[in-house]
Amino acid sequence: MPILTDLDISWNSLNGSIPLSMGNLQALMTLVISNNHLSGEIPQFWNKMPSLYIVDMSNNSLSGTIPRSLGSLTTLRFLVLSNNNLSGELPSHLQNCRALESLDLGDNKFSGNIPSWIGETMPSLLILALRSNFFSGNIPSEICALSALHILDLSHNNVSGFIPPCFRNLSGFKSELLDDDIARYEGRLNLDSKGRAIEYYHSLYLVNSLDLSCNNLSGEIPIELTSLLKLGTLNLSSNNLGGTIPEKIGNLQWLETLDLSRNKLSGPIPLSMASITFLVHLNLSHNNLSGKIPTGNQLQTLIDPSIYQGNLALCGFPLTNECHDNNGTNPTGKGEDKDDEDGDDSELPWFFVSMGLGFIIGHWGVCGTLVIKKSWRYAYFRFVDKMKDRLLLAVALNVARLTRKV
């Protein structure tokens, strides 16, 4: 089939190795042989297929290293080799694939450092997924040059060092990716989101995810991460990160998943976190956080106590331990009632003083006037006598009326 351009035999039960004769398909542009039971090494025939822009061999049992001839595919845009048994370091000849938009090598046995040339030679990269391998060393600062990046997954490796502050240059996390930015092909990608593993397909352009979890990263969470305004998932769990949670974490208004669990973070939970209105999964457990848990807005819907477990100095809802002030008293509830009672006791003498003054002023305001002004005194007593006579007359008439009825 010398003019065949697209070959998709995925999702079958094919086994054995990839045949060398496949290299005769010189017009091939799309090769998808994923989700089979293929084994053995990847053949060295890729320089015979110069038009390839999609290669998906994921979810098989392929072993060995990435062949050198793959680097001859200068038009390659999507390389998906995830979930195999591939090993070794990433070969430098891959840097010839300058048109790559998606590089997914997750769930293999690759080792060595993350190459710096990824950031130097692949300016169009939208997806970089290296999860679940044996990569070590630091995160190269050259990755910060990948301004189009929307998904960066380095989780479940042995990466160490600091999170580069230059991540603020990843402007792809500051904008939404349009559906025509990944044209014709997306493939499938497994990501940890919303507290579980999710397989994305046909919607990868909607995902903005930064996952550095399960590594040996240290230092503080750089405040520069709070400038990645369109970030949907931020997972830094299971590292050795210290310091405090950045106060401006509330700037990440698009966050749906925030996982900072199993680190060495300390200090209070920033109040700004309550303003992240799209947050559906939060995990701050097993740190050294302290103080009162913020309330209000979205945090009122996240009522699972396990979100905060392992932080012995945290208090307040939804935990059972109440917050206390520096004197060991509860700032709410019974403590306030006692303070109010003490305040009432201190004001009690003034109540009697004011009541006595009121009686004296009221009494002498009336009686003093009658004593001083004679005409008013006569008029007052005539009025009293007249009212007394009317009252006595009314009583006498009612008594007589009742007597006649009897």
From TrEMBL:
Keywords: Cell membrane, Glycoprotein, Leucine-rich repeat, Membrane, Receptor, Repeat, Signal, Transmembrane, Transmembrane helix. InterPro entries: Leu-rich_rpt, LRR_dom_sf, RLP23-like. The chain crosses the membrane at residues 350-372. It is a single-pass type I membrane protein. SUPFAM superfamilies: RNI-like. The keyword Glycosyltransferase does not apply. It is found in: Cell membrane; Membrane. It holds the Pfam family LRR_1. It comes from the Eukaryota. Gene3D superfamilies: Ribonuclease Inhibitor. GO terms for cellular component: plasma membrane. Belongs to the RLP family. This is Uncharacterized protein.
